[in-house]
């Protein structure tokens, strides 16, 4: 797999691995053996970029994902780029399956969080550390200043922002150069394409989470009943309601036709389209299945021309489709 450059100098594989689903939001938690098989396959396929966060876990073990990766990635640590995130917590008083998020971008919170993440991940530094959501009660300059201190201390080598706007990106970048933003992006959620000009101006990378619209673009799901498991966020996502699935019938049929023309899968077309859009976009699809991970990683071998990308964009602009999950509610402190 080829590499891409995030920011000034962070080299990562064209496709990364979003590890959240092994611990959080999809109803089933991976065992260490299952995680080892996934990571081994990802490494074999040329993946060097692994993404987690301090809040990816379960009610019983809120930091499950970082702990799991700390064990499983230990043999590969010097060969990979490891990213994690800080700056939010769940509203544990909520009864919804996807509990609201409470941002906390205070410098003291960031400095405490990095210590916990480094311990759980069995490492002395992170290659990329994001503020997970923007805390509008704390000036982003203060958050950026804390990240700059962590860089000076060698605890992180690069930093980024998740779900950030142009204004926030510009203000943060003045204090400490931003390497990457990590925002939701897929064929069904293209809102952040408006950020491409500023990212190109400031030489900031775009790490795309939920690049397969939480799995819908795999074309593998056909009934809302498939998600009625405790802790499965898809049970509350609009694209997976029975109505949403019906609304997406034409879209998914079109995706299958496009994929068949290339002798690939809809998921692979989705990721190949994203890679062809901009050279600084790096999708981080997640999965708990080895065969699905292999399918995702092999998307890097599929090349779409700019004419093909333009044709797909035009179709997406006119294709009827459902709303897509836009993230958990942000709640004030």
From TrEMBL:
TM stretches of this protein: none
Entry superkingdom: Bacteria
SUPFAM superfamilies the UniProt entry points to: NAD(P)-linked oxidoreductase
Gene3D superfamilies reported in the protein's UniProt record: NADP-dependent oxidoreductase domain
A GO CC annotation given for this chain: cytoplasm
Keyword tags: Oxidoreductase
Molecular function, one GO term: oxidoreductase activity
Record has S-adenosyl-L-methionine as a keyword: no
Keyword Oxidoreductase attached: yes
Domain (NADP-dependent oxidoreductase): residue spans on this chain: 14-316
A matching Pfam family: Aldo_ket_red
InterPro entries: Aldo-Keto_reductase, NAD(P)_OxRdtase_dom_sf, NADP_OxRdtase_dom
Protein name as catalogued: Aldo/keto reductase
